[in-house]
Write a structure and sequence with these properties.
It is a single chain. By secondary structure, the chain is α+β, with helices and mostly antiparallel strands. The chain contains 3 helices and 19 strands. Strands 5, 6, 7, 8, 9, 10, 14, 15, 16 and 17 form a 10-stranded antiparallel beta sheet that branches. The protein has a 3-stranded antiparallel beta sheet with strand order 11-12-13, with no helix packed on it. The longest helix has 38 residues. It is elongated. About 3% of the residues have low confidence. It comes from Enterocloster hominis (ex Hitch et al. 2024). Keywords: Bacterial flagellum, Cell projection, Cilium, Flagellum. It is found in: Bacterial flagellum basal body.
Length: 246
């Protein structure tokens, strides 16, 4: 009977985690360059075998406790739309913009940039956009960004180049808010040169219809696990009462 408790409870915990992830994806449906996340699930037995023997076979086909092995982000090119805003930039291809924050370096596909009072190009609330020569400075009178990421002044003088990097392992990136990522010590970054569009933004990679459907499915699964837990508890109480009468 206790195994039933554990199985139902683990199902509730897993579905709650999946529901939170779906809700976060839905909340970022308008965040430029955001990539949706998924929870990779497995069973406790399968995970135990992997850790002990380095193998992938399971232990039978019975109902077992479920756990989450990792969170997976679906990286891929989302549609690019015109905004007409001078400071908006979009990457068409692989790679991330590099943002220098006060507490470290961030990677992002969100090119909804602004110009601060000192003339630096920034991602609001995160930090300064980095170029090959350091923080990107743009003149208020105007500038132009070529398809190769090179920044020009009004007289077509070359100022800098937008720094765009690609990690060797996307799965090892650390996810932060607003579609930003961190590259830990185990991630190697390589500078790449995809096409850069000015006056455009990459849309969120979230499909709202899919996320709403997934959220409803997970919520029903969560409710089912909750009902199962209630039934098991009632059965335990009934058994205890019967034993007490003996």
């Amino acid at each position: 009977m206790f195994s039933g408790f554990y199985t139902a409870a683990s199902g509730m915990l897993m579905n709650q985690r999946s529901l939170d992830m779906a809700a976060n994806n839905i909340a970022n449906v308008k965040t430029s360059g955001y990539k949706p996340k998924r929870l990779v699930k497995t069973t406790f037995n399968e995970q135990l075998v992997r850790q002990m023997n380095g193998q992938t076979q399971g232990l039978g086909q019975g109902s077992t406790i479920s756990i989450g092995t990792r969170e997976m982000t679906t990286h891929g090119q989302a549609p690019v739309v015109d905004t007409g805003q001078t400071y908006d930039l979009a990457i068409n291809g692989d790679g991330f913009f590099v943002i220098q924050g006060t507490d470290g370096q961030y990677l992002t596909r969100n090119g909804h940039f602004k110009r601060d009072e000192e003339g630096n190009l920034i991602l609001p609330g995160v930090g300064q956009v980095m170029g090959d020569g350091g923080p990107v400075y743009v003149d208020e009178s105007g500038f132009r960004v070529g398809a190769d990421g090179i920044i020009y002044d009004n007289e077509d003088g070359e100022l800098d180049q937008i720094q765009i990097v690609e990690p060797d392992d996307y799965d090892n990136l650390t996810f932060y808010d607003n579609g930003t990522y961190g590259a830990g010590g185990g991630v190697t970054l390589t500078q790449v040169y995809p096409t850069v569009y000015q006056g455009k933004l990459e849309q969120s990679g979230v499909n709202l219809n899919n996320e709403m459907t997934r959220a409803m499915e997970v919520q029903r699964a969560f409710q089912s696990c909750g009902k199962a837990l209630t039934i098991i508890d009632q059965m335990n109480q009934k058994t205890a009462n019967e034993i007490g009468k003996l």
